[in-house]
# Entry
Amino acid sequence: MSLKKNIVNLKDLESIAKEKLSGKVYDYLSGGAGDETTIYHNKDAYNHIKLCPRVLLDVENRDLSIELLSQKISMPILIAPTAFHCLANVDGELATVSAAAKADTVMMVSMASTKSLEEIAHTAYKASANPKLWFQMYLQPDIEVNKVFVKRAEDAGYKALVITADSPVFGHRERDIRNNFHKLPNGLSLKNFDDDRLMLANGKKATLELSATTTWKDIEALKTITKLPVFVKGILSPKDAELAITHGVDGIIVSNHGGRQLDSVPATIDVLSSIASVVKDRVPVIVDGGIRRGTDILKALALGANAIAIGRPVLWGLSSNGEEGVLEVLKMLKHELDTTMALCGCTTVKEIDKNLIY
Ligand SMILES: Cc1cc2nc3c(=O)[nH]c(=O)nc-3n(C[C@H](O)[C@H](O)[C@H](O)COP(=O)(O)O)c2cc1C
# Structure
């Protein structure tokens, strides 16, 4: 539990972040596409799912650790990739990754980071002998650029690649349009693109692009140039989950990009069990979107996720108090999940199943 008695949950941290950040930045981090109905549903859907706890089971010794792709992780709570951490705190991704390494959990590092993937890895390996770093990519239209990124991620010690599939174009984000928030403030840049190897055939330096021509063939091609496991992030349809497996994907992230891409799609928790039924444990399934409570996490695990990921809460922690703030977020959620497990009669994550849903 938090030692600071006025900060007891993630909402408290969001309030602190809101006070600290400029309106434009707060809107960029918290906002989403269209009418933001999906942001609302992502959170609200959890309130409509009820738990059905078991009692009189010995729950004294509890273990929250999990195994994902043969790696032991301290808890089923991972950090989803989010862009531009330096908007939230001067140390940006370096603060986040130190917290992730100390908490012994996965940080998915966004390709759109404001520190380079190498600097982030360097900080992670200083904080832990075995940091759980995954690199998130938007596949670029130029295959040579993708090859450079894959090689850099492998060389820097990343353990998996996460390919975001829900962004052939940018979502329609009205808060950013109103605020005229279209570029990073002076002094901040997409550090991963400050690299001399990223030259295009036309002699120009590559910049981050969304590619509307990317298909499953590109995922297959990616699998031939790396030994790293490949997750596809942004799956909402069971049909795409099956296709992902057919095309050799090693893991699926059920996500609607925190409601920032297509508005009016269902809450991720509402599509999770139909995807889990198609996947049938062939590959791990991770879910993100609107997860703010230990009870939300238990519900997601019960409905078929192997782990969950959080996006905005990490940014609230980072804005409020840098590395310490991110650690606080991870500790709060871990503590809430631990309490929820005890109250539901579970001592390990494996014991959490559909029978715990009313
Ligand atoms: C400010 C912000 C930036 C994001 N940047 C990325 C990104 O660079 N790559 C990506 O795959 N997803 C990105 N996402 C989506 C997150 O990975 C994740 O899907 C989402 O935040 C989960 O929902 P939550 O914020 O409700 O936890 C971003 C989300 C936010 C809020």
Q: What stands out?
A: Residues 10-356 form a domain with the TIM Barrel fold (CATH 3.20.20.70). The beta strands are 66-68, 71-73, 77-79, 106-110, 132-137, 160-164, 230-235, 251-254, 285-288, 307-310. The chain has one domain: 10-356. The mean pLDDT is 96.
